[in-house]
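@channel anyone free to eyeball this complex?
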Amino acid sequence: MIRFGTLMHQLVLAAEDTGHAAEDGHHAIEPGITSGALVEWAWLIVIVPLVAAFVIAFFGKKLPFKGWEIAFGSIAFVGVYGTVLFLLNATQGIVYEGTVAIADIGDFHLEWGWMVDGLSIMMYFLVGVVGTLVFMYALGYMKGDVRFTWFFVSFSLFAGGMLVLVSSPNLIQLIVGWELVGVASYLLIGHYWEDYANVDAANKAFMVNKVADAALFMGAIIMAVSVGSFSFNHILEVVVHGENGALSQWAFWAGLLIFIGAMGKSAQFPLHVWLPDAMAGPTPVSALMHAATMVTAGVYLLGRLFPFYLDVDGLFAGDVRNIIIVIGGLTLFLTGFIAIVQDDIKKVLAYSTVSQLGYMVAAMGAGAYTAGLFHLFTHAFFKALLFLGAGSVIHAVHSNNMSDMGGLRKKMPITFWTFILGTLALVGIFPFAGFFSKDEILASIKYAGGHGQDVANFILILGIAGAFITALYMTRAVALTFFGEYKGKAHPHESPKSMAYPLIGLAFFAVTAGWVNMPGIYTGFTDWLATRVPLTGIGDHHAESFDWALIVIVTPLALLAIAIGWWMYGKDKDTQAERDTFRIPVLWPLLENKYYIDDFYMSGIVRPIMGPLARVVLWIDMNIVDGVVNGVGALMKVFSKGVATVDTNVVDGVFNATGAGTGASGSALRRSFTGRVQQYAAFSFVGVIVIAVLFIIF
Amino acid sequence: MTVSIGDFFRESANWAFLVIAIPTLVAGWRTVTSNHIVRAVLYLVVSLGGSAALFFMLGAGFVGWTVVLVYIGAVIILFLIGIMITRAPLGEKEELSHGTNVKAPAALLSVVMFGVIAWAAIDAYTNEMIAPFESTSTQELSLLMFDRFVLPFEVVSFVLLAALIGGIALARQDEEASS
Amino acid sequence: MTIIQFLLVGAALFSFGLYGVITRRNAVLVLASVELMLAAVNINLVTFDVVLQDALHAGQMFSLFIIALAAAEVGIGIAIVLMIFRNRQSADVDELDLMKG
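replying in thread with the prediction:
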């Protein structure tokens, strides 16, 4: 039964349903805005980029900027709308869920909707603002590209997909957005498809994500079947009310499978392998998709289902959090190490992204909703900044490798200074953004360790070590790129204004984004994220004041790492070979081969499946086909020898007959491949008749 | 409600049926056997017109008129254009069909096919009468079309669009290739 | 009116169409034979629609969809025949044996 109703008639205000709250000590925020044109028209945020993608596809090439202006206009619209919502949410609080019924199939209600609550508003803001700056940057970066227009089609499609994902009030729409993002990412990673390696990278990203997606589907189906609805609202109500039913029975598996889905998009160990390869795409893609937004989808999903994982009542997926925190901890530690040995500047940032995502996931695992999303928020800005800075450098020297860079400090001052700000933010030096968010994550992990989650104590050590590693590889990247002597061949120059302004804009956020959540001073961010559908409060732990013990350990450690990094790489060393004299015997080969995970996937999973298949076919060919031939031959030989002594004519006859027989059977078989369509049609109708007769008889 | 063979000819509607069905079948047969290409297509017109008349008999006026408009009006024109453009040999030509070596098995297959369908139909509805029915109004159909069947309707529209674009893309003379 | 008289007309037209599809050498006439088969299917659908007194008129609906799709099919089919003719100066399906083994 499919019904198409008019849009306005079927608007359902979920806010009516969110009156109950404040149970079990959850604190709930009273939202100021639960209706009105501003939130009711928020679906435009989702639709505009998607429409823009189609418009660019059809008319882009004829426009003066070849479609860029439409892409930029649509994303700027999202940025402005997102900022307005963000500010209003910060001052008054917004909770709204709009839905439009698409179809009712039995008990199953298919809905399309848009959430306007703290969590999704933060994502609208991020996608909009970072997107606007990156799109602006891309105008300069992609100039002269053969598929310029197509690039902006895919890019707008990606932004639309991400917004479908984060606006989704149910798991179905989330999966639709999830896959849209996956497709757009496939298109963008493979943008330079003339190079086969890039196609491979795109395929790899798609396949690895598909493995995770399969788990996400299963988890979503388990969850929906046990609750009877795909809606987050209904699922979380069951969780908040602590109903001991089908969902609580299946909670562990549903939670684990959905987390595996999140691991794919958020590039968690051991499914992180696609992200570094995805650097094959143009740099603006890396900045927006593989740093700021797409990879945060997994963390976002964990945040959306957070009460389910937090599990105050002990009925749901609380156990999964131990797995989440371990995966997050391993990711942040192991992939940070790989970044130390990379020569490709984008790969350094890629592994750094994976590592920072590990921090976010670990925070979610520690039950720290605010901390995880806070790091997502700050990281989006400074990582986008670093990627764009790297892109600016790559644009100037025409190489990704840091062995072709060096000494760019003077030639590219804007890039240099903004890159430094981004680095300081990433390393977590006071008062830059990363300092506040990383500190809050570590404090939350420490708190979890002290409150019954024993494994968190171990992860805390990894987290602190991760901060050290982060400082080390970023210092190395800065030293090799901007200091020393220039080693490349091209003539570097500062990038055009359309590329420089976004850097400055992002640098502003990289410095200030952390100031929205300073424990003990101003913790607005915590409240902004607490306005949610359903309005139940989050109940996570967030720090009331700075954890001085951690700061005293982490900040000097980071400074020490900077000093070590400077001592190792800051000095003028001309060649890659000389720099590589510093090698730790076992560790370095291990890191350079990325822990052999790719090799494991190839030789452990891909080849064992393809290999035996090929071997079976080969075996059949060798033993059965050849066997028959050889057997016939051998038989003939014996036979001929026997007969030859009697009469050579008979032998000749037999051989001729054999040849003729083989030829005849060959041409008999050939006759079935006549190339005549009508004969094929006749054969297929013979089949139809046989099937029809069988149907009539039985 | 069953009826004997004798009753068949006592019902006046059945005479009308025979008047329609026999030309329909004869024209259908000539469509696939005629050695004159333009005539074959014109026989197809008669055959399709007969099927439209059968639809009228069954009270499906809208479907009948659609057949008249779409098939007889548009599709046949396409066929004729196709014949003209491909410079098919006009007049009596033996080479329009395959020889007996193909015709014999094809005839056998067709007869078997007819036998199977007829068998299934007779097996299920021996001598059963069609219960009295009212003809379907266009209004009724359109209400269903744009409510219950709107999704298939949209899909078919999309297929038509794709076919339109595909047809243009295929048939369009490639300027570079031709020059 | 009996039910089978309509069904038998449909069956006969379908068999004629099948015969034509297999025996015709000219591609345009093969397409015409396919149209004959589709018309036969339509007769069956409408007959069953009437016989079963379907409130949703699914039979008539589907025959309408089939007519639309048949139109699309002929459009594409003729375009393909045109292409083939342009490349090979012939619309004879016998000469299209590139797939011959």
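from a first look: Strands of chain A lie at 96-105, 108-116.
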